Amino acid sequence: MSNNSFYLLDNDQVLKELLKQAKSDDKYYLKALYQIAYSILKERLEDDPHPGKTDYVRLGILLREMGEFDESFGYFEKALALGSDSEALYETGNLFKQSGDFVKALDYLEKIPENERDEKILELIEYCRKSKS
């Protein structure tokens, strides 16, 4: 899909396309894509009278990838305030892992019910356990 065809898509499709293209090595291109995605997600959140956990988690992930850890954590907290869920716990744990706080990462990751821990989660838990020492 070319960049010129974005105007034909709704915001969800634009966001998915932008995030697919965000694998580029050009840091300026990547930064611009993140800013556009942030604007779309933020606008959606403001327009929704009852945003859900997924909305907050998506914005938290994006902000984490942009290096905005404090703001990212705020959105993960909002998602978790709506009820604990494995995705929000995993993404919050991943945030703290990326910031180097392995103890806090484990605090969130170990709250994920054991029957919901897939290989990705188990690997992150193991990594954080080894790294905190």
What can you see in these coordinates?
This protein is an all-alpha fold. Helix 3 runs antiparallel to helix 4, helix 3 runs parallel beside helix 5 and helix 5 packs antiparallel against helix 6. It starts with 10 loop residues before the first helix and ends with a helix.
How do the SSEs run, as a string of H and E? HHHHHHH
Helix content: 55-70%
Broad structural category:
mainly alpha
Count of individual beta strands: 0
Question: Counting H and I runs of at least 4 residues, what is the number of helices?
Answer: 7
Beta-strand percentage range: under 5%
Rg over C-alpha atoms, rounded to the nearest angstrom: 16 Å
Characterize the main sheet. Answer: none
**Global mean pLDDT:** 84
Shape: globular
Low-confidence runs of at least 5 consecutive residues:
1-9
Distance between the termini: 47 Å
Topology:
Layout: H1 11-21, H2 27-47, H3 53-65, H4 69-81, H5 86-98, H6 102-109, H7 119-131
Helix pairs in contact: 1-2, 2-3, 3-4, 3-5, 4-5, 5-6, 6-7
